[in-house]
Amino acid sequence: MPTHIRSAWFRTLGQLLTVLAAGVLLGLLLGQVWLSLTLAALAVVAWHYWRLRRLLVRLTARQRIQPGKGEGVWNELDRLLYRGQSEMRARKRGLVDMLRAYRAAADALPDAVVVVDRNTQRVQWFNRAATRLLGLQHADLGSAVGECLQPLGLSHWLAAGRNAEPLLDAASPADPELRINLRLIPYSDEHWLLVARDVSKMLRLEQMRQDFVANVSHELRTPLTVIHGYLDMLDPAEAPEWAPILSEMQKQSQRMTQLVEDLLTLSRLEAQDSLPDES
After folding, report:
1. Could you tell me if 41 and 76 lie in one domain?
2. Does residue 208 share a domain with residue 144?
3. Do 206 and 191 share a structural domain?
4. Of 175, 183, 184, 255, which one has the greatest count of Cβ atoms within 10 A?
5. DSSP code per residue over 206-233
6. Vertex 157, ends 153 and 162: CA angle to 5°?
7. Which residues contact 33 (CB under 8 A, 6 or more apart)?
8. Residues 7, 84 share a domain
9. Residue 33 sits in which domain range?
């Protein structure tokens, strides 16, 4: 036991003995020792009861306990509670500041972030990007995420939970011109993280790349066919000195023709992958 607490106990015990001794002296003067001692003891009990009741009322009402100025046990208890409350308030402020910092960081993300309750599938929180990409408003807090994002038809996707595959290309409920992908990330036993990213620019660039590959392949195929045909018409036997050159030109022409065929095959495969699944 710390020294200051031990000292507080001794002071309180000394105060108790002083009150009882005063009761005995008063009883001797009045000739009623036991009555006076009993009244003194009841006064001590009543005072401790009053201090205990006041402390319980303050704790129940979550009032801030002010440190006592005396040296007794009750004042020491007030100081300990005051210190504990101060430390708890400091930790609470630290946690609140940390939570605000995390939310500010999530709010600054360009991707939409929505916190969803795993049991009820209700929206708990979302950042500003969720308003732009998903059309969520403040009134949607506490609503079912499937109803808030009804145009996307997420009911079956959300039901899959942890096994839900990412939706790589979906129309934004806020703007049909925007294309988004959606991921459902479990990050605790009670919450999911719904993340939506704007992939419109990436899809346009991918489409431009596919179109470029297809166009270049078709544009190169015809002149390469002509060049290959002319090279086949040339007879190395008529000009032996040109034979090595013609052989190398035919080899390179065939390589370029094969490259164009590979590009066309790749373009056809990508076009098939981009078709919707009819099953």
Report:
1. yes
2. no
3. no
4. 184
5. HHHHHHHHHHHHHHHHHHHHHHHHHHHH
6. 155
7. 24, 27
8. yes
9. 3-88
The answer on pLDDT for 263 being more than 80 is: no
Q: Evaluate whether 30 touches 98 at the Cβ level (below 8 Å).
A: no
Give the other-Cβ count within 10 Å of 121's Cβ. Answer: 19
Partnered with residue 67 across adjacent β-strands are: none
Ranges 109-113, 129-133, 209-213: which has the least confidence: 209-213
Q: Which helix (H) or strand (E) holds 49?
A: helix 33-60
pTM of the model: 0.57
Q: Measure the CA–CA gap between 109 and 125, rounded to whole angstroms.
A: 14
* Integer Cα distance of 64 and 50 in angstroms: 18
Q: End-to-end alpha-carbon separation of the chain, Å?
A: 76
pLDDT digits (tens, 9 = 90+) for 42-63: 887 888 888 788 878 887 877 7
Number of separate domains in the chain: 3
Taking the C-alpha atoms of residue 89 and residue 91, their distance in angstroms, rounded to an integer, is 5
Residue 230's CB: how many other CB atoms inside 10 A? 11
Q: Tell me if 93 is assigned to some domain.
A: no
- Residue in this structure with the two tokens 């145009």, named with its chain if needed: 151
Residue-by-residue DSSP string for 264-275: HHHHHHHHHHHS
Does 231 reside within a domain? yes
Tens digit of pLDDT for each residue in 202-228? 888 877 877 777 777 777 777 877 887
Please indicate, yes or no, if residue 188 is contained in any of the structural domains: yes
Which of 20, 79, 72, 74 shows the shortest CA–CA distance to 52?
74
